[in-house]
Write a structure and sequence with these properties.
This protein is mostly helical and about 170 residues long. Helices cover about 60% and strands about 5% of the residues. It is built from six helices and two strands. The protein has helices at about 10-20, 30-35, 40-50, 60-80, 95-105, 120-155; strands at about 110-115, 115-120. A two-stranded antiparallel ribbon has the order 1-2. A hairpin with a 2-residue loop joins strand 1 and strand 2. The mean pLDDT is about 90.
């Protein structure tokens, strides 16, 4: 057996940069994601539903997109390990789909994988939660590196100011 990193760091960097481009305010969600992991996969998954139910022009909606994209990328990563998870939702008003996904988390409903029905086991959930924890640690790390970029983009530059650092005279 060989070591496989599943590119968690690269995935996290891409997610943070995408969130930064969309809304610098959404980057704070990285810390909330890391905290939320301990409550379980289904609660982590459900957070995008709560936020995407907000007005499309709101910061909360942008935060919801960050959660959605994170779950989607995480789900794709877990497929590489043959752990199949419920899909993220964009239509957050369909309660029947939400109920089905919730049952999938508990192994009470099948997840369609090609033509097969796959059930999430307790072992799968434990593995997925461990990987999600690591992904969120990576998100926090990249957020700490790029957060200042978002703050600089929001602040208007003073007239005549240079965007480059001052040159030290020797």
């Amino acid at each position: 057996m060989t070591w496989n990193t599943y590119k968690l760091d690269e995935t996290a960097q891409d997610l943070v940069l995408t969130a930064l481009e969309r809304s610098a305010e959404s980057l704070n969600q990285s810390y909330k994601m890391r905290t939320n992991v301990s409550f379980g996969l289904e609660r982590f998954w459900g957070e995008h539903i709560r936020l995407l139910a907000k007005n499309r022009s709101s910061d909360d909606y942008q935060k919801g997109l960050y959660w959605h994209d994170t779950w989607k990328a995480f789900r794709e990563t877990m497929k590489e390990a043959y752990v199949f998870l419920p899909e993220p939702l964009m239509n957050v008003n369909d309660t029947e789909v939400i109920k089905t996904a919730t049952k999938q988390f508990w192994g009470e409903a099948a997840i369609k994988v090609d033509s097969a029905d796959v059930y999430l086991t307790l072992e799968d959930r434990r593995i997925a939660q461990a990987v999600l924890t690591q992904l969120c640690d990576c998100l926090v790390w990249w957020t700490q590196r790029y957060k200042d970029l978002g703050e600089k983009r929001r602040q208007p530059m003073a007239k005549g100011a240079s965007s480059s650092p001052p040159v030290k005279k020797i």
